[in-house]
Structures are given as C-alpha cells and as structure tokens.
C-alpha cells in the first residue's frame, strides 16, 4: 500500500479549499511509495532498533484483536476489508496528487517513522 501521511492530506485539503482552480475537482491521495508489510516492518525495525516482523492473521482473528484493543467494530471490519484489497494488489497504485497540488513530493513512510520514533519506542 502507498500509505499517505495525514499532514499531506491536510495540506492538500487546505490548498483545495483556499487555493484557486480546485472547484469541482476530486483528488485521490497516496503516499510517495507503495510498501509491503515486510518493508514496513523493516523500516520500523531500523527506526526502533527492535526486531519487527510482519505476520498475517486470519481476517476474523485480526478483527477480534483490533476490537479487543479498543477499536470500534465497524472500523475493525473496514480495516479487515482494506487489508483484503491490499493483499490483492488493489491499493498498490501511487497518485501524484500531492506533488501536483502542493509542488512538493508526498512525505515518505520512512520519514514519518523517523519523525514519530518516540511513539514506537515509548
């Protein structure tokens, strides 16, 4: 998946709302790169100094785990559905919207992890 940084979403939204030439347009947003679960685990391992692995769970088990950890059941169901689409490659595309609208590249997942390292190492 090409995870998009929430700050890029906000920046594009501000430009679309306040800038000229966006009336009536709809924008698809993605991050700068599509990453596999294994690549994400590697980046997290690198940033934290801890071994992080990617493990697949059966959909019902994944949903139950999310709910047990406080996620609303409807959101957990949506996350499981999203994961099923990702596994089929449907979410691997990369949009250039962030760079087109903002004139700069989308933030990379690696940079997000580095900037938020404190959240992962407690």
TrEMBL record:
Broad enzyme group: oxidoreductase
The EC number(s) this enzyme carries: 1.7.-.-
Domain NmrA-like residues, every copy: 2-99
Keywords: Oxidoreductase, Plasmid
UniProt-recorded Gene Ontology molecular function terms: oxidoreductase activity
InterPro entries per UniProt: Ergot_Alk_Oxidoreductase, NAD(P)-bd_dom_sf, NmrA-like
Any Pfam family hit: NmrA
PANTHER family registered for this protein in UniProt: PRESTALK A DIFFERENTIATION PROTEIN A (PTHR43162:SF1), PTHR43162
Descriptive protein name: NAD(P)H azoreductase
Originating species: Nitratireductor thuwali
Lineage of the organism: Bacteria, Pseudomonadati, Pseudomonadota, Alphaproteobacteria, Hyphomicrobiales
Gene expressing this chain: azoB_3
């Amino acid at each position: 998946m090409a995870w998009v940084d929430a700050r890029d979403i906000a920046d594009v939204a501000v430009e679309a709302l306040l800038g000229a030439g966006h009336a009536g347009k709809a924008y698809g947003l993605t991050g700068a790169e599509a990453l596999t679960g294994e690549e994400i685990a590697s980046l997290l391992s690198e940033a934290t100094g801890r071994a992080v692995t990617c493990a697949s769970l059966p959909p019902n088990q994944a949903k139950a785990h999310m709910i047990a950890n406080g996620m609303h059941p409807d959101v957990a169901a949506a996350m499981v559905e999203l994961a099923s689409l990702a596994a089929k490659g449907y979410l691997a595309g990369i949009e250039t919207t962030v760079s087109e609208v903002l004139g700069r590249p989308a933030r990379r997942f690696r940079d997000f992890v580095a900037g938020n390292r404190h959240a992962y190492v407690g």
